[in-house]
Amino acid sequence: MEAVDLAWLLAAFALVLVMFPGLALFYGGMLGTRHTLNMIMMVMSALPVTAVVYVLVGHGLVLGDSVFGLGLIGNPLDLLGFSALMVDDGAGSTYWGAFYILFAAITIAIVASGAAGRMQFSAWLVFSAIWLLLVYCPLAHWVFAFSDEEAGTVGGWLRNVIELHDFAGGTAVHMNAGVAALALALVLGKRKAYPGRPHNLPLVVLGAGLLWVGWIGFNGGTAGGANFLAQYVVLTTLLAGCTGMIGFTLVEKLREGRATTLGLVSGLVAGLVGITPSADAVSPIGALLVGLFTGAVVSGLMTLLNRLRVDEPLDAFAIHGLGGIVGTFCVIVFGAAAAPAGVTGVLFGGSWDILWRELVAIGATCIYSFVMTFVIAKALDRVIGLRVDEKTEFTGLDTVLHAESAYHLARN
Q1: What pTM, to 2 d.p., does this model score?
Q2: How many other C-beta atoms are found inside a 10 Å radius of the C-beta of residue 52?
Q3: d(C-alpha 319, C-alpha 28), whole Å
Q4: Tally of CB atoms within 10 A around 144
């Protein structure tokens, strides 16, 4: 790997790392003051849990040669303990091992939305490790593992058999995390102590800004080096984030008669989710449309979800799950032949053959993630118990579980 490529990738790695405190602040600010630190702990703990699991067996499960050539799961023995990454192979494999840890960790961190304000922290740590092994790793193998005929290895079935186009994880990361958050929320049940509204919107805005910075590294680093593709996806990521804000707040204004700060930053994140699978496949105008449509659809469907009274207060299912689905559909519709991916969407005369491929990927991802997450959460609830007791919930998870408080305000 050229030094200039490695330099950009290391910079991109640092940007993605910023996403963890960003998401922690984004989610923490949306909860009540009694549960803020608990949510920050859940998001930040995703990184150390993932690092241990991924180094031991996860990397092989994701990128190893597919077991029995079925394209369902990689061989954990192929990259056991990262032992193969201790020498320079010239292809940057050591870097990619570290980068994929961040991909896995941010996915489970998003799932924390479904547990907000009512889950035992110890149970969350156990759930995280098991979920990574049984849900994230198989899905990541389906999407991220490429077959290599020369080396005689078989990759994931969605990428290599169905020929899914997903630039940076719209399926394995965002759709997966959003659907899993919904399943976890359904198992846990509704909170008994509802906080009225986000307690600190400036904190939410700061968190969203850090996520946007991290997304530049997330998509730009996926380009694999300091090249034209990196330039291109940074541009499309910027544009979709901007119009995501427009789409979300426009629907909010039409629906409620006003636009809100929370809606603005929710639209930003929705637009970034939408562009993740299509960043290399759409034109700059297409990127504007991806963000606009994703923000608008998420804003509209969020109202419907609220009416169903599913207690998933940080909206991971709406923003990441539905946003990932909309972004994947945008590949089908807005794909431009002149873009780096060379995918022609049906709006520009492309073949409808791409439709069934993307639909299979959406269906397989959502069904597998929801069913497996639901089963894992149900099983753990019976074995160790997931929810805190009612007194702890009303007193506050910060105080009871962590012996801390986010704010100490002296009276004047």
Answers
A1: 0.96
A2: 13
A3: 16
A4: 24
